[in-house]
Every structure is written in structure tokens, then in C-alpha cells.
Amino acid sequence: xxxxxxxxxxxxxxxLVPTLQRLGDVKIRVITxxxxxxxxxxxxxxxxxxDPEELEAALADDVTVEAFELIxxxxxxxxxxxxxxxxxxxxSSIVTDENGFLVHTETENGGWIVHLLLxxxxxxxxxxxxxxxxxxxxxxxxxYSNEDASGDSSYGLTDEQREALQLxxxxxxxxxxxxxxxxxxAEQMDLSSTAMSGxxxxxxxxxxxxxxxxxxxx
Length: 218
Fold this sequence. Notes:
The structure is a single chain. The protein is α+β, with helices and mostly antiparallel strands. The chain has eight helices and eight strands. It has helices spanning 17-23, 52-61, 92-97, 121-133, 159-170, 182-188, 193-210, 212-217, and strands spanning 3-10, 27-30, 42-48, 65-74, 77-84, 101-108, 111-118, 137-145. Helix 1 crosses helix 2, helix 5 crosses helix 7 and helix 6 crosses helix 7 (193-210). It is elongated, with a radius of gyration of 20 Å.
């Protein structure tokens, strides 16, 4: 069953990260293409920055940029075709290998936020393993099962988030006052308190996004 996942990835040699770090307030988005070539390292980018000369100086010094070509510019927004150097870290190849699609990709918090459409959770696991093997920090922000109305809903939760929330609820963590501390719940999950807190927080965010927020949007 297909899934939609939103992940945040970080590495100093991810595409255009040196430019992102140098310019700070620059905004970059990959322009989605109708077809993808698994071996391609040449992509169209939409870049928002108010100083064209400073931007191109940063691109020229960027160790992930082999070459760039300006296609169009309107005020503070420009479209560039950019070829990456061999040392550039990309996840596009593994996504394509897993029969997935990069639906939306833009810079955020010193890295990239990537929206993925994948055939199943196994594909996401393969991308996770690829990221680990290439020293890419990958954080799953949201994940949804693309199910029809008759199927069981995942409510946007990963299996780990569902397990953590169910345990915390059953043990009385959400009671007022609490029947169990965060550290005690974390111990039962064999996690640190920090990791458990993060898992519960992301799980509750996904749960709200898939229920209350989704209904308000509808």
C-alpha cells in the first residue's frame, strides 16, 4: 500500500547546502519534472534571493555545484539549471530505484524538506538505510498511508509513534495528574527520555494533522 512521507535531510554536501549556509535567507526549491533519470545530476531549481551577483558568487564557490545556467529571472526569483559535482549527496537516485517520486523539495532549517510518494513502507526503509550508509541525517516528519475509505487508517503515525502513544496512554502518562513519568515510559520502550519525548511529540503532531487539522482543511 502506497504511502506519503515528509522527511527532513541534512548533510554538509547535500545539493546547494553550502550556498544555503553562506546566504542564510535564500530560499531554494526543486522544480518538479514529469520524468526523472535515476543517474541524472542536473536539476532545475527555483531560487529566491534579492542579490543576483551575490547568489551567483555563492553558486560558483559551492562544492556541490559543477555548473549552473540562468534560465529566467523575475525580481527576486530566478530559475537555474544546476549540475552537481560527484561528491554531492542526493537521495533522488534511491527514491527512483524504489519506484518513488519526489513530490516537493525545498530548503528548510539548514537542509531539505522532501515530500515523497512511495509504493510502501519498505521503500521508505530502504531510503532510510541509504541515508545512514551515506551519513545523511534523515528525520521522518510525517507519514501517511494512502488508503481508500474502507481501509484502516494509520492517522499519519509511524509504527514506532503508534506504539509509543499507545503505551503512554495505557500507562496513564496523559492523565492529570500523571500516573507515570516520561522517564518511566521511556524505560519501558528502551529509549532515552529525550528520544521518547520527541517520538510522542511527533506522533501527536501527525495525529492532529491527520484528524483535526485535516477535517478543518476539508
